């Protein structure tokens, strides 16, 4: 359905201004948004100005058009000029700007919803411009169109200057709205960036917390596994002397009832030996469980004096010799920890020596920038390669599994204390002799001017 609204003859610039104004008025009355009003009116004025500039005269018809359920405000601008000979070339130049020939056509095409142009040599050109009308627009009836025509006829003469000024004011208003929207968009982008940064920080913190939780879970699982192994091994090692005590007690009871005094005298030392073994085992387990966990204050320790006390407490066999480096350092540390470490290492070297009358132990020290290195070296039977990786485990007795008085906890206590202090402990043995080395934090070293 097509309804003609009004017609304007285009002969001069004043008519171009009038066409622009009518385009604004009609699109406004039909409910077109302000920005689209200006776009449609600008497209109309571009084509009308082409008519005045290149042909001299023409006609513009404003129509109300309904097509496929969509309403349009239509402007049909026609002239009787010579036509546009290079129209196809002009239409292909989609990025044409400026005031060069053909720019008005390209610019107008960009400003409307539908654009159509027909041209024929010596018969003129017709351009159709359409802008969609919102569905909620005023119902356009013949009475409404007649009223609009009457109102347009009653208007006073148009001042080109006033209309151009009005157009410029409208454009400035649109530019200001666009500037405000750009500022709002920039603020929104900045806020989005801020939120993204905050989200990334939160993700990083969450990831860090998850890593910490996983690490704690891993350590907890390791502790649980060690606890299970500890409980299993303790129950196994405690059961053996208990079974021996039970068996010896039964035999002892039978001997007493039978008045076999000689047999009783044989069994009693065996009973004491088993109870002593069990006492040492329980004491060793307690020492291991507490190793490195005491809240012990550090104090000034003269290493040479401490070593002499440790050696004296071990009651060395005749002929057994211990050499100590003369310039051992002074430490500000937990004396009981160092005493337990050195006591176990020296005690093992004495206990497991196969020729104690020729036994020799050498204790040395090296100072490094980040750690202190101590070593306890003996000339004993040595430790085979197959035993070295496991001798620091709990209840591991290696080749000395059957040695009386051995609980298999000494080296595990050493490892636990040294590890708690942030150091390492290891063994070197190739053939005869063993060399145990352990590190201690350099922060515990007393400087010469601090003594």
UniProtKB/TrEMBL annotation:
Reaction catalysis annotation: ATP + protein L-histidine = ADP + protein N-phospho-L-histidine
Gene Ontology MF terms: ATP binding
Listed PROSITE patterns: HIS_KIN
Leading EC class: transferase
Alphabetized SUPFAM superfamilies for the sequence: ATPase domain of HSP90 chaperone/DNA topoisomerase II/histidine kinase, Homodimeric domain of signal transducing histidine kinase
PANTHER family attached to this UniProt entry: SENSOR HISTIDINE KINASE GLRK (PTHR42878:SF7), TWO-COMPONENT HISTIDINE KINASE (PTHR42878)
Name of protein: histidine kinase
Organism of provenance: Pontibacter locisalis
């Amino acid at each position: 359905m097509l309804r003609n609204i009004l017609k304007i003859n285009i002969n001069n610039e004043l008519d171009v201004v009038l066409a622009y104004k009518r385009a604004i008025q009609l699109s406004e009355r039909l409910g077109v948004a302000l920005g689209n009003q200006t776009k449609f009116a600008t497209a109309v004025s571009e084509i009308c100005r082409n008519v005045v500039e290149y042909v001299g005269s023409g006609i513009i018809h404003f129509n109300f058009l309904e097509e496929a359920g969509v309403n349009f405000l239509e402007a049909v601008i026609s002239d009787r000029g010579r036509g546009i000979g290079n129209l196809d070339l002009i239409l292909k130049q989609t990025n044409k700007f400026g005031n060069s020939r053909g720019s008005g056509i390209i610019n107008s095409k960009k400003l409307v919803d539908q654009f159509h142009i027909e041209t024929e040599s010596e018969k003129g050109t017709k351009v159709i411009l359409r802008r969609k009308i919102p569905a909620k627009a005023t119902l356009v009836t013949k009475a409404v169109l007649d009223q609009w025509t009457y109102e347009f006829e009653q208007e006073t003469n148009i001042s080109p200057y006033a209309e151009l000024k009005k157009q410029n004011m409208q454009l400035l208003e649109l530019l200001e709205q666009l500037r405000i929207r750009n500022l709002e968009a920039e603020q929104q982008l900045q806020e989005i960036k801020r939120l993204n940064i905050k989200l990334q920080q939160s993700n990083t913190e969450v990831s860090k917390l998850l890593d910490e939780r996983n690490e704690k879970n891993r350590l907890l699982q390791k502790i649980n596994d060690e606890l299970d192994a500890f409980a299993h091994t303790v129950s196994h090692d405690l059961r053996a002397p208990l079974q021996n005590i039970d068996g010896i007690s039964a035999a002892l009871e039978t001997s007493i009832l039978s008045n076999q005094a000689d047999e009783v005298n044989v069994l009693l030392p065996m009973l004491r030996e088993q109870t002593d073994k069990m006492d040492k085992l329980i004491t060793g387990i307690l020492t291991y469980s507490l190793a490195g966990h005491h809240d012990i204050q550090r104090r000034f320790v003269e290493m040479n004096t401490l070593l002499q006390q440790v050696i004296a407490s071990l009651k060395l066999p005749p002929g057994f010799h211990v050499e100590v480096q003369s310039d051992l350092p002074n430490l500000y540390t937990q004396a009981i920890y160092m005493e337990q470490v050195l006591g176990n290492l020296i005690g093992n070297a004495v206990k497991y020596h196969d020729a104690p009358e020729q036994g020799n132990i050498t204790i040395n020290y090296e100072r490094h920038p980040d750690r202190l290195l101590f070593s306890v070296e003996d000339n004993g039977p040595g430790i085979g390669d197959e035993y070295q990786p496991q001798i620091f485990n709990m209840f591991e007795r290696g080749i000395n599994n059957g040695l009386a008085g051995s609980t298999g906890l000494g080296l595990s206590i050493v490892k636990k204390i040294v590890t708690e202090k942030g150091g390492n402990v290891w063994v070197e043995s190739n053939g005869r002799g063993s060399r145990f080395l352990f590190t201690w934090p350099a922060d515990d070293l007393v400087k010469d001017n601090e003594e």
